[in-house]
Amino acid sequence: QVKLVESGGGLVQPGGSLRLSCTAPGSIFRLYTMGWYRQAPGQQRELVADIRNGGEANYADFARGRFTISRDNAENTAYLQMNNLKPEDTAVYYCNAYYGDLISGETNYWGQGTQVTVSS
């Protein structure tokens, strides 16, 4: 059973910052695209940002310019730095590890989720 360990959620005021962390087993981390998704109450889970093992990053429109995804290959950890947080960023944030190719198909692993609440 592959386990992704998340940390860093919490309560922050509007305009504040949080950094989320996600640690994966090394055998997974070096090959997989690491991403962050979020799910607000009554909403579908949506992509926030992801980063390939080569470092190429992709952002949702709402995240671009405020959030930064990064990965530390020595620590097998992916990060999501979130700045200028807004109340609408309130959600459970999930770490994801994704791998896909034409031979083996697609594999996804998920973290347990961490709550981010933006409120004054």
Structural description of this entry:
The protein is mainly β. The chain is globular, with a radius of gyration of 14 Å. The chain contains one helix and eleven strands. Strands 2, 4, 5, 6, 9, 10 and 11 form a seven-stranded mixed β-sheet that branches. The protein starts with a strand and ends with a strand. The model has no long low-confidence stretch (mean pLDDT 95).
Explain the layout of strands and helices:
Layout: E1 5-7, E2 10-12, E3 18-23, H1 26-29, E4 33-39, E5 46-51, E6 57-59, E7 67-72, E8 77-82, E9 91-101, E10 105-110, E11 114-118
Parallel strand pairs: 2-11
Antiparallel strand pairs: 1-3, 3-8, 4-5, 4-9, 5-6, 7-8, 9-10, 9-11
What gyration radius follows from the Cα positions, in whole Å?
14 Å
- Global structural class: mainly beta
Number of H- or I-type helical stretches: 1
Please give the share of residues in helix. Answer: under 10%
What would the average pLDDT be, to the nearest integer?
A: 95
Number of strands: 11
Cα distance spanning the termini = 39 Å
Write the element-wise H/E pattern from the N-terminal end onward. EEEHEEEEEEEE
Structure described in brief:
The chain has 120 residues and is mainly β.
Keywords, separated by commas or semicolons:
120 residues, mainly beta, 4-stranded antiparallel sheet, 1 helix, 11 strands, globular
